[in-house]
Write a structure and sequence with these properties.
Length: about 425
Amino acid sequence: MPQTFTQLAAAALLTLTACSGPTEQSGPPPLLTALPRALSPAESRLVSAGNQFAFGLFREVQRARPGDNIFLSPTSASMALGMTLNGAAGTTLDSMRLALSVEGAPIEEINAGYRSLIDLLQGLDSSVDFAIANSIWARAGMPFAASFLDAGKTSFDAEIKALDFAAPSTLAAINQWVNEKTKGKIPTILDQIAADEVMFLINAIYFKGSWRSAFDPKATQDLPFHAADGTTRSVPMMRLAPRPLRHASVPGHEIVELLYGNGAFAMTLVLPAAGRSLAELTDGLDTARWAEWTGALAEHETGLLLPRFRLDYKRELNDDLGGLGMRIAFDPARADFSRMLSGTVGGNLYISKVVQKTFVDVNEAGTTAAAATSVGIGVTSAPATIQFDRPFLFAIRERLSGTILFLGQVVKL
């Protein structure tokens, strides 16, 4: 049975060119131990496909920038591209489904999976500020197909606006929308609107959660962090005294999971054994191995030292997505997005660029994260303390469905 798409959490912007707030309360809420409803088989396949895309995209970026900190929202990227799927045709559509790990899945099933999973994710924890928003900004006068726009509105709750792209106010309006939806964490997504750009499809995600077991700021102290390049510097290291934490010792690395709010959302941290690199850890990482790691988590009396960190990250993802199989979508001579426009025009559209911006702040109280992905379409014209004092992998995920919202690595501070 073909795998289907994943649900996403981040801010994603799709550029086409012609080309709920937290609840105040004392103490953590009751622990959520199950989803309010079972995932359908299609939704389960969609989650699996999304996570597989996450690991593939992360590896492509890691190979290109092995010595850099990385923070991606594969969910954001896949939602932006998921909206674009509704305009793709032929081998372009096939290549995009391959990259997104949804080979052979009908567009209707992919759209339905997004629709139901977006609804499910946003209502799981009232104590966590988590929101997904989508919008489609079209150049006024371009003959975009009603079926394409309707799919964005129906399946992604996209706001649809037709504007004069030559007016300076349009650039300001798009950036202001992203700024508002990410609560100021991604102030801008576009620097300019080129003459051949005719549409921007934007997915925005914002996440802010408090730890169920908060770190005491008084216990934070400066300790050494050994970077991947061999240098060592002193960084603020947060401390949790030994307590019941979700932890697993897997050959070659340690895994710790910290819960937010009612436990629906979590940060999963993976620390390679001393002498092992992050590339060794992620080489061949897929949904099956990830399931083994997270399935091994259980409460153990464990202490933790974790650096306090904040990352602002930006990357153009064209080459990374091309490495996953969708190079044709970036080729002006071969890309086919004819289903975006009405009539016979539209076959000359192509994806000019995919850019993602992300933000994460991990501190004693919890985590704030956001992301924005811009896809531009152009026209051819153990009872010991686990110390994260060296490079590590981390994910922010909805643990009951298994959806990975954000994925990153810290190699230097």
